[in-house]
Amino acid sequence: MNIALISEYLETYQGRDKFLKTLSYMAKFATLGVSSNETNKKLKIFSNQMNECRMILRLLNDIPMIHYAMKYKWKKEESDWLIRYAELIQILVDIIFCPIEHIFWAGKHKLIKINNEIWNNASTWLWIISLQLSLLKSLRKIKFNNYKIHLSETNYNTRLTLKAINKQKWNELLTCIRLILDISYAINYLPSGILWAGQLKTWHIGILGSLSSLIGLYQTFKKQEEHKNF
What we know:
Peroxisomal membrane protein 11C, membrane, 0% strand, PEX11, 8 helices, PEX11C_met, mainly alpha, 75% helix
C-alpha cells in the first residue's frame, strides 16, 4: 500500500474518521485475546476514546450536511426513482441526526441536563435507519445495473464496458457487506428486547466493526489508486 495515499487520506476528515473507527473496533476485538482484567480495561478505554474523538469531530458536521443537501439536485441527481427517494430521505435523516447526537454529547458530559438514554436511543435509531437506506441504495444499484450488453464479444469497447460494470457491481457488493456488518452491531446499542440488542460481547462488536472498517479502507484506497493511475 502506497504511504503517500495513506498520508493524503489522513489529511481529510473522512480519512481520520475511518482510521479512528478501525482503531476503536480493533481494540474491542483485541479484548478476546487478553486474560488480564487490567489490559482488558485499557483496551476498552482506548476504544471509547477513539469513539469519543469521532463524536467530537462530528460536532462540525452540520454545515457540510446542510451544504450537501442544498447542492443536491432534488429531481435529477439519480436516474432511478428508488435510489433518488432513498437518498432524499437519508439526507433528511442525517440532518436530524447531527443535532440529536450533539445534544446527547452535551448531556453525556453534563453540559446540559437531559435524559441521556432517550437522546442516545434516538441517535442510534437514526444511525440504523441511515445505514438501512444506504444498503437499499446499494442493493438497488446492483439490480439496476444487472443487464447484459448484446454486442459482439470481440468488440473492444464492449469488453471495457463489461469490465467497468463488473467492477462497479463488486464494489457495491462490498458496500452491502460492509453495511450489513454495521447494522449488525448497531442493533446491539438499541434498548434491550429489540432483536439482539445488548446481547453481543465486546469482541463480537469488535470483529464486526473491524471487518466493516477494513472493507471501507480497502474500497477507498482501491479507488484512490485507480484514480492516480488514470
